Amino acid sequence: MKRVLYTILLVLFISCGNDDGPPPSPEGALLIFPDENSECTTGISVNEELSQVTFEWMPAKNADLYTLTVINLNTNAPQAITSASTSVALSIEKGAPFSWSVTSSNTGSDLTATSDNWLFYNSGSQTTYAPFPAQLIVPKSGATVQKNSANEVSLEWFGADVEDDIEQFEVYFSEQNPPNALLVSTNGQVLETNVTVISGTTYYWKVITTDAEGNSSDSGVFDFKVL
Q1: Quick check: 90 and 53 in contact, CB under 8 A?
Q2: Alpha-carbon gap, residue 105 to 123, rounded angstroms
Q3: Beta strand 38-40 pairing with 87-93
Q4: How does strand 222-226 pair with strand 143-145?
Q5: What InterPro entries does this protein's entry cite (predicted)?
Q6: Is 67 within 8 Å of 102 (Cβ atoms)?
C-alpha cells in the first residue's frame, strides 16, 4: 500500500514539475506608419474615392496575431482585419480623417493587448485639412459620475491638427441631445473645463474644434449621468 501511494505521489510531483503554466501575455505593438497626427500621402489610388494605404507596426512580444482597426472619423465606420504579418494594406476614403490601432493576441491565450491610438488624414485633393475631431476623454460616454463638493464635473478632451494650428475649442453642453448651449470657448491649449451639474440628471456634450484657416470639426455627442 505504501509503495502504491509513493508511486502516485511521485507521478503527481513529476506532472506538476512539468507544468509550464499559462502562455505569456502578448504586449502592445508599437505603431510605425501612418505617422501620428500626419497627412498620409503614400496611398495608391484605387479609384476617385479610395486609395490603398499600407499600415505598419513593430512585432509585439509574445504575439502571433494582430488585428488592425481603422476608423473613419467622419462616419465612425470601422474596418478591421486580422493578420500574422506586421503590415496590412487597406483601401480607405481619400481626404478623410482616420484613427488606427493594433490589438496583439496569442493563439495560446485569451489575453490581448492594444497599441496606442493614432490619428491621420488620408491625402485627397484638398490642400488644407480640418482639425481632427476632438477626442472626448472624461467623462466617458454612458458613464455615471460623481460630482465634487462644488457640484461640478470636469470635462476633458484632446485635440490635434495636421498643421498644428488649432485656434479654439467650443464646448457645447446641455440636458438636450444634441447639446445646443455653448458652455465655453477656449484657446487651442486649454483641454478641460468644469461644469455645474445636478444629481440624477443626464447631460450631453460635444466639442467643435476650429483652426487658423477657419476649418472646423465636430467631436460627436457624448453623454453621462450624475449620481
Answers
A1: yes
A2: 31
A3: unpaired
A4: parallel
A5: FN3_sf, Ig-like_fold
A6: yes
Nearest-Å Rg of the Cα atoms of the chain is 24
Cβ atoms of residues 159 and 132 within 8 Å: yes
For the residues 24-40, what does the mean pLDDT come to? Answer: 96
Which residue shows C-alpha cell 490603398?
Answer: 52
- Are 172 and 183 in contact, with CB atoms under 8 Å apart? yes
The answer to whether residues 101 and 118 touch, using CB atoms and an 8 Å cutoff, is: yes
Q: Could you report the per-residue pLDDT of 53-64, keeping only the tens digit for each? A: 999 999 999 999
Specify the pLDDT at position 63: 97
| Predicted structure pTM score | 0.83
Which residues is 171 bridged to in the sheet?
A: 184, 207
Domains of the chain: 31-122 (2.60.40.10), 135-226 (2.60.40.10)
The answer to whether residue 152 scores a pLDDT higher than 70 is yes
Class of residue 168 by CB neighbours under 10 A (exposed 0-12, middle 13-18, buried 19+)? middle
Question: Do 95 and 121 meet the contact criterion of CB atoms below 8 Å apart?
Answer: yes
Give CA 8 to chain center in angstroms.
53
**Bridge partner list, 120:** 38, 98
Residue 104 identity: S
Q: Which three cell numbers stand for residue 39?
A: 497627412
